[in-house]
Amino acid sequence: MAPAEIRSVIIDILGDIAPDEDLSTLDDAVAFRDQLELDSMDFLDIVMELRKRYRVQVPEEDYPALNSMASTVEYLTPKMADVVAT
Amino acid sequence: MYDTIIIGAGMSGLAAGIRLAHYDQRVCILERHYTIGGLNSFYRLNGRDYDVGLHAVTNFTEKGAKKGPLARILRQLRFKWEDFALAPQKGSRVVFPQAELKFNNDVDLLRAEIARAFPSQVDHFEDLLRKVVDYDDLDQEMFEISSRTILAETFSEPLLIEMLLCPLMWYGNAAEEDMAWGQFCIMFRSIFIEGFARPYKGVRLILKNLVKRFRGLGGELKLRTGVKQIVVEDGHAVAVELDNGEQITGKRILSSAGNIETLRMCSDTSEPDPRKAGQLTFIESISVLDREPEMLGNQDTIIFYNDSETFHWRRPESELCDIRTGVICSPNNYEYSDEDGQLADGIIRITSIADFDRWNNLNEQEYALEKLRWYDRSVASAVRFTPDFRDCVIDTDLFTPTTIRRFTWHDNGAVYGMPEKQLDGTTHVDNLFLCGTDQGYVGIIGAMMSGISMANLHCLRD
Questions:
Q1: pTM of the full predicted structure?
Q2: ipTM of this complex
Q3: CB distance from B455 to chain A under 8 Å?
Q4: Within 13 A of B452's CA, how many CA atoms are on the CB side?
Q5: Is A69 buried (19+), middle (13-18) or exposed (0-12) by CB count in 10 A?
Q6: A34 reaches B (C-beta below 8 A)
Q7: Distance CA B181, CA B101 (A)
């Protein structure tokens, strides 16, 4: 998957986790925590959904990499390079 | 081999089951009773539907709210706000002979009532609100300090302290007389800041949605399936033995059966647990009326009453029940949608404190007689605080501590479980964890939150 595809995967996951959030105005450079009402349970869900949908493992020590959209896409790009978009 | 075996199909077990099945685990929920729900179950009698535990769903927040436990569990379980179809309360009261406080789902009403009834305590109430909001949920040390100590430092009017404690203890305090500060804060937020609501169809709507989702995700639910023993070898649970002798295996076990009750099932515990089971249990007197309570002038959703200036929250000392305090709930008095309209019958439910051992020791004949006697007494006590409805009663039922034990399997029929909570859910067995009342959260939303957080903490991260 290319970075743009990974971004839309994350948007899709966020839409499932927090259906009441307006994601169209999300600023990729700003921490999720500062613009969405996400708590630690929701962050766990981003990790779990990646595992469920794409078999991508994110070890606990890497959770800080999921701070913002930009850092998440950057972190996942090598991990998801071989994943085929559906 | 299951990934997770869950003991108990109440709110916490079902919510945990949904979380785990959603993430592709093989999950099996074992329930001893013939129906789901645990404390928050339902039954049918003389052609009418009754709820067991539910007076009100606490922690109510409006659609679109992003904060608070209700929003959290909806997100975690991938439900829409509409799935629980919660109708907010009309308004409730705390009534003591010397004063009354009205409250609803907007804390400003309680604030105004305190200014009216206790003008000298207005600033102190703001202090309390700050302390409650600042409290951090999972701090075990702060959790256990005494609420009465903190309240005595905050207020200079003892009656107000009793009146604030009364509803919070009634809806979630497992300990006698005093309340853990953590429990106080959780209950204060859920009742006074968030508030009460109820689905038009009662608790069965929520349960139906939970079970449908769980099964839709591939989860297995076995009713009439009690656990005889958890087989433990070297501190590790290797199997669960059912009442019929069958053994099933799982990588881990999540139990909502209660702390002492769960540990007693473990094959490596032969000594009786010295810790104290909860003592607080109830009778519930249910009256079906030939008209809506509102037609009698009763517009209250819930009334918490106490007939003296001191609130006694303890097991009855010499009788089957203690009717000096009670809760009066009128399930008709919610703001149901125009589509749903009003419930088919007028209903008034009255809860009184009861003693498990005395009820449990009655023979069949005495039991039937005492049920009639205490129905009359508890209703007579309650109508001092609500319009007398006794001329309008067309059917009655009364359930007792032994009924509650049958539904929950908790020792003593203890509605809110043990006084000491195990907030992290761990046990002496490395793959056996607790959820439900003895983990720390109570109420319908609280129980679901307990199942979700213990599933997340102990069952998903491998």
A1: 0.94
A2: 0.88
A3: no
A4: 25
A5: buried
A6: no
A7: 22
